[in-house]
Model the fold of this input.
Amino acid sequence: MKKYLSLSLIIYLLFACGESLKEKGSKEYISEIKSWHNKRIENLKKENGWLNLIGLLWLKDGENKFGSDKSNDVVFPEPAPKFMGKFILKDTLVTVEINPDVEVTNSGEKITSLNLQNDLKGNPTVLAYKNLRWYIIKRGPKYGVRLRDLEAPLVKNFKGIETFPINEDWKIEAKFVPYNPMKNILIQNILGMIDTSKAAGKIYFKKDGKEFSLEALDGGEDSFFIIFGDETSGNETYGAGRFLSVEKPKEGQKFYIDFNKAYNPPCVFTKYATCPLPPKENLLKLRITAGEKMFKGGGH
Done:
């Protein structure tokens, strides 16, 4: 009798687990989320994606010699030549000077010297040598070289990101209350640096009979950018939170926040990213079982 009870219990548990893993929603909605996620994966694999980062090298004031030789101030990996040239940091300007025998290009053109625009200007100057790419980033008062390898192992071995089962219940009708004018809030990044960001307003939504709110950063013309943590953070999902882009409300239409589109910050994939952390207002006492789960095999 006990054997039959045990077998029945096992069958029940397997069935229950199978039921809990089922997708929920209309065919159109499930297809939309899958397409969104596939595009996200493709973007990660691109030259400007996050899978190929292999270095973040901070500059000191003045001259910074670089190349693969260990005696350089900034050490690149092979196939970089031993001595490639130097970066010169003076005030807020970074200039590069390339040694005559080294072929470094920008937009396909060989360069000998160039003033480098950093990433906060919106269109950083990208330099190239064989499969290596690099450009200048600015974080607080610091300037650094962000280095990519288009043939990095993570790009070649990337199998995708596990997600929670798609569930249309996590596409929640919400209310947006704007700040007028926008409010400055402090956002700390994973390096401990603190930056000021513009919050466009607050998003309010209800789940399981309780109301929650999120600070919505201005994400440009069409969207808000949200950095949040929840009660899955550090377990099923990344401990330092996840990101979410929310389409701005349109007059006469319902406004939604869709957690099925919650995604991992770059720091999940590489230790060379400088990810912002959720503000304390965005640490939710709620298990958000939607969107991307923790990625295993990256930098953290």
